[in-house]
Amino acid sequence: MLPEYHSLDRETPLFRTPFGKFAFRVVSLPFFSFLFCVLWSVVFYFDRATATHCHVYNFLPSISAAIGSYQPQRFIWQVAICAHAVPRFMVAYMYLRYYRSCVRKRWHFLVNSATMLNVVENGALLGLSLFTSVDSYEIHKFCFITFIATSELYMLVSYIMNINLRRGDSLTKLEDKSIRFKGYLCLINIVSFSLAGYFFLRHNSYCEPGVYSLFALFEYIVVLTNMGFHMTAYWDFHGRWISFSWTTGLYFSQN
Q1: Alpha-carbon distance 251 to 247, whole Å?
Q2: Tens of pLDDT along 227-239?
Q3: Strand partners, 240
Q4: Which sign does the torsion angle of CA 74, 80, 83, 86 carry?
Q5: Three-state DSSP class for 113?
Q6: Burial annotation 123-160 (CB, 10 A radius, 16+ → b, else e)
Q7: 113-168 per-position pLDDT tens digit
Q8: pTM, full prediction
Q9: Which positions ≥6 away from 110 have C-beta within 8 Å?
Q10: Around Cβ 249, how many Cβ atoms within 10 Å?
Q11: Dihedral, CA of residue 203, residue 205, residue 208 and residue 214, to nearest 10
Q12: Contact by Cβ (8 Å): 80, 33
């Protein structure tokens, strides 16, 4: 379904689209650009993208090598992240309103904290994508650490709020499904991050063939489960529409 466009009547929505379509388009930007960058690096830059200081064989490039070291991968990734940043901030605002409506009021400080983590995570992703390790290592390093820390905390806080702090209202089937998938994706993300750290340290200590690629593989899983976690918004906001009019600006509504 395409977005609906209307006349310039100030009272009529100028733009209106279902949230599900909106969410798919937003997440597809980093998802497909990520797949492109990895595949392009493997096909056309294999030797350089998989090289390490140890000079041992590896079969996968790290994310930093795949998206930040070569063209056109670097350009495509940066365009995708910049294009999806503003919609991500919009979704953070939707979650702020959503959790304030369903989480018990005495826990609203956690709602505010989760929103802040979500916003900072998005800003850090933007920063580490624009400032690569090749050109601006210290800025890239700071943004990367910030992104990892805030994304992990955001997933944990969101899941805890959903399973423990919601009001007594019954969940819809889609909300229940969303919470279950949040739990699975959060667990896989944390385990994968731990394994990526283990293989990174092992690679630096022993320089074994293929170990750096195992680090890269679990890096990929961390990124993909992060995208999947944010995609659960598809179920949380099922049936809602995103609209824009001259009088009210951007707003969200039911069917």
Answers
A1: 11
A2: 999 999 999 998 8
A3: 254
A4: negative
A5: helix
A6: bbbbbbbbbbbeeeeeebeebbebbbebbbbbbbbbbe
A7: 999 999 999 999 999 999 987 788 899 899 999 999 999 999 999 999 998 877 76
A8: 0.89
A9: 103, 157, 160, 161, 165
A10: 8
A11: -20
A12: yes
